[in-house]
Design a protein that fits this description.
Blueprint (H helix, E strand, L loop, with lengths): L6 H4 L12 E10 L3 H12 L4 E4 L15 E2 L7 H8 L1 H24 L3 H4 L2 E7 L5 H15 L4 E3 L1 H7 L8 E9 L2 H14 L3 E3 L6 E3 L5 E4 L3 E10 L10 H4 L3 E10 L3 H5 L7 E4 L6 E5 L4 E9 L8 H12 L8 E11 L6 E6 L2 E5 L5 H17 L18 H26 L1
Parallel strand pairs: 1-2, 1-10, 2-7, 4-12, 10-17
Antiparallel strand pairs: 3-6, 4-6, 5-6, 8-9, 9-10, 11-14, 11-15, 12-13, 13-14, 16-17
Bound molecules: flavin-adenine dinucleotide.
The site of flavin-adenine dinucleotide has 43 residues, from helix 2, strand 11, strand 15 and helix 12.
């Protein structure tokens, strides 16, 4: 299986293909899923001296990790207040602090692995409002500074419109520490790190059978099997029925990205900031300049439909043009979709299923920092370095609601869309 066609695969820095598993092999830890959750855990464990084997059904970073917007910033898919409802204020704060650590882990890895040239991190994120919200933004800025020592700047509307030429936009918060980068080149750099520390990666090697209730676990693929003391399940939105408890506990939600043609002058009539930009819609629009400012990469919309719509590019383009009418003749060169994994509580599912069996999944649309902490805390649990994994205990493997869950998500999304539309209309 090869990668889907995307901006990231067109700018891949390393095209190494890892072999498919053939025959029997042993590991301290076998990781199912070579997305950023599995790869981060693998790299942390391999650096700690564990023999790691990663089984990836397709290619390293083939799933959401290699298709996303590339925005790395603190937080979770769940808001701080929702986290507080499930876990209490103090634990919610500890988790948020971890989410800041997650963004730092990614930044640290890019530096430590020397992959700045291929990952191209660009600092700064503007979170812009579609209606005036000065007081709410100031409150958020002050809360993050007070509770986490995390500093954001308030941007009044005039400052926003100097760099984002859209009359849809009002004020914003600017985060100088957040950044955007090339997530697939980063995933592949983590894979190389695992190999460099004595681990093994097998691509085209879906785990199709598992014996997990003995001290020595066994994972089976079409071509071979792995014996391991510990197993990490990190299949994200592509999780199969291998472990039914996990399959029942998440909903796969699709989201979309497009890449425009090269048109630097026309794009500069709309966007002149090199930062990551996202708006406050619930399934927000997010975009950034890529290819040295010559193209726009634009993402948004969510759906419970797994099949990619035929009019995907047109659908997304409509949102882009409704924000920036000056881009109405900008051609879309390519569009793609990916599946995210959502739990009902909107928080990641990170924990121990039984002795030696860990899960690290459901990172939703906020996975680039949270997969890093997920991978780290699971690795720490396996090496015995910490029990920070327990911070996630309030967010267990709750049933996803089956078809009712899917319908509820779609309905909630439509309700949010209607609420956003109403608020924006009042501000117009
Ligand atoms: C279009 C899009 C845009 C996004 N934008 C952002 C963003 O800008 N910022 C942000 O923070 N987050 C973003 N996200 C979310 C983020 O990408 C994900 O939360 C994160 O990458 C999930 O990583 P993962 O490792 O859990 O899953 P994945 O990256 O999906 O990896 C799971 C892997 O497991 C493999 N697998 C599954 N089952 C098996 C099996 N039985 N055997 C072997 N392998 C198996 C799959 O093939 C897959 O490669 C976005 C997501 C999408 C789809």
């Amino acid at each position: 299986m090869s990668y889907i066609d995307s901006w990231y695969t067109r700018t891949l820095s390393d095209t190494t293909e890892y072999p498919a598993l053939a025959g029997e092999t042993d590991a301290d830890t076998c990781i199912i899923g070579g997305g950023l959750a599995g790869l981060t855990a693998g790299s942390e464990l391999a650096r700690a001296g564990k023999r790691v084997v990663v089984l990836e059904a397709e290619r390293v970073g083939w799933g959401a990790s290699g298709r996303n917007g590339g925005f790395v910033s603190p937080g979770f898919a769940a808001s701080l207040s929702l986290m507080g409802l499930y876990a209490g204020t103090e634990r919610a704060k500890a988790l948020y602090q971890l989410s800041i650590e997650g963004a730092n882990i990614v930044r640290g890895n890019v530096d430590a692995l020397g992959v700045g040239d291929s990952c191209k991190p660009v600092h700064g994120k503007i979170g812009v409002m579609r209606y005036p919200a000065r007081d709410a933004l100031m409150q958020r800025r002050d809360q993050l500074a007070r509770d986490f020592g995390y500093h954001l700047d308030y941007m009044p509307r005039e400052a926003v419109r100097e760099v984002l030429h859209s009359d849809k936009y009002h004020d914003a918060l600017y985060d100088p520490q957040a950044f955007h980068f090339h997530p697939l080149n980063y995933a592949r750099a983590l894979a190389r790190d695992i190999i460099a520390h004595g681990g093994a990666i097998y691509e085209n090697s879906a785990a199709i059978g598992a014996v997990l209730d003995a001290p020595e676990k066994r994972l089976r693929t079409i071509g071979g099997s792995v014996r391991a003391r510990d197993v990490i399940l990190s299949g994200g939105g592509y999780t199969t029925d291998l472990v039914p408890e996990l399959r029942r506990a998440y909903l796969p939600i699709a989201t979309y990205v497009l890449l425009t043609e090269q048109a630097p002058d026309r794009i500069a009539q709309a966007v002149t900031s090199p930062c990551a930009i996202s708006d406050n819609r619930r399934a927000n629009d997010y975009y950034r300049l890529v290819d040295d400012g010559k193209r726009l990469l634009w993402g948004g919309r969510i759906t419970t439909r797994r099949a990619e719509p035929r009019d995907l590019a047109a659908l997304l383009r409509k949102t882009m043009v409704s924000t920036y009418p000056q881009l109405s003749d900008l051609r879309v060169e390519i569009a793609w979709s990916g599946l995210m994994s959502y739990a009902r509580h909107l928080m990641p599912q990170i924990g121990r299923l039984r002795d030696g069996v860990y899960y690290c999944t459901a990172f939703g649309g906020h996975g680039l920092n949270t997969t890093a902490i997920g991978g780290r805390v699971v690795a720490e649990a396996i090496t015995g370095e910490s029990d920070r994994i327990r911070l996630f205990e309030p967010f267990g493997l709750a049933w996803n609601g089956g078809p009712f869950g899917t319908a509820a998500v779609q309905l909630t999304y439509w309700t949010y869309q209607a609420q956003d539309w109403w608020k924006e209309r009042r501000a117009a």
